[in-house]
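Hi R.,

Here's the chain you asked about this morning:
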Amino acid sequence: MTPSIRRTGTISARRCIAAVKMERPSRRGCWRSASHRAAVRSGVGTLALTAVVLGGFEQRRDDRPLVVIASPRTPVRAAPYGPSSASLVLEPGAAAEMVDTFAGGRWLRIHRGDGVNGWVLASQVVRL
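And here is the predicted structure, written out as tokens:
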């Protein structure tokens, strides 16, 4: 290493790097100050908390049941009753997330990632 490595705190950067390479902690440590250690601990704690919260959201998303359209030309309706206008038609094999039920499970409210939202008859889909 070059002799131009500057000193940081009470331990030189050269000694700190040597301690890391030899995989043994230095007697004085490589941390600059107590406030630096506290900042690092705070950052690690924030990352851990974020991971826990995002894991909870992912678990809730995974708990929702999926349905697959089984009938040809299944209409996705704006409301859960027959005369309601069909916003679009889905073909067999299209998957969706079941969000809600209506009329004792006769109608299922579905949601797809491409923005499709609406109601379909439970007899026209297969629950997974």
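One quick note: The helical segments are 13-21, 34-62.

Cheers,
M.
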